Every structure is written in C-alpha cells, then in structure tokens.
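This section describes the prediction task in plain terms. A model, or a person checking by hand, is given the sequence of a single protein chain and must write out its three-dimensional structure as a string of tokens. No templates, partner chains or ligands are provided. The sample shown here is typical of the held-out split.
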Amino acid sequence: MVIPQRDLTVLASGCAVSGRVAGRDLDVLGQFDGELELSGRVHVAAGSRVKGRVRANLVEIDGDFEGEVRTETLRLGVGASARGKFFAGRIAIVDGARLEGDVNPSEPAAGGGSHSSASGPSLASAAEPCPEPLLLV
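The expected answer:
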C-alpha cells in the first residue's frame, strides 16, 4: 500500500509568527501576520488568527481572518470571521460564518486601484443579494 506524501506545515496553537511563508500546504492553529504564498491549501483553524495577504489554490477559514485572499476556492466554516478583499473562483459559506468586505469572482484588472470592482459584488454580509452568481452553501 502506497501512502501519499503530503507536504504540510503546521503553525501550532500558542505560536505567533510574522513574515512571509511559501510552500505547499499550511494549517494555522496559532497566529500569523504577513504574506502566505502557497501552491496548495491554507486552513485557518478555529481559534486561530491570520492577518495579511494569502494566495493559495484552496483557502479554508474556520477562525479569524483579516486581509486579502486570492484563491480558486474559498470556504468559510462555522464560526469563521473574515474581513477584507476576496478574489475567488468559487466560494462556500456555511451558516454561522461571517464575511465582510469585497468579493470578486476573478483577479482584478491590471492597474486597478482601490475602488470597488465592477466584476463582483461588495458584500456587507453573506445574506446580501449578489448581482453575479456565487456558490453559497
């Protein structure tokens, strides 16, 4: 039997790290402030906090997040609190999660400023109607 190898890094509970992290997969159980550039998945666990910019294929938030996310798939779990700008191809928000900020279905155009994008809705909460389709679970 072949066991697949997983390149997973874990920021343990009780740890506080700031800076830039690059790699494949990361589970944040503590606190992180800075930039995450990952080719796989980032999981912000319940009780943890991330502040900064995140780029990964899959971003799962169950804890507290503030900043900017660029991902193919964004998932907000029960108890998640996310504030900032979110660029995602797909988004799933479960009942009990909180999302505040701008949600855009794709990358912003080059040279775009800090104004709201016409390519996606600006959300104050997950219950607000969206002019473009988003997958809300």
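For orientation: Residues 109-137 have pLDDT under 50 and may be disordered.
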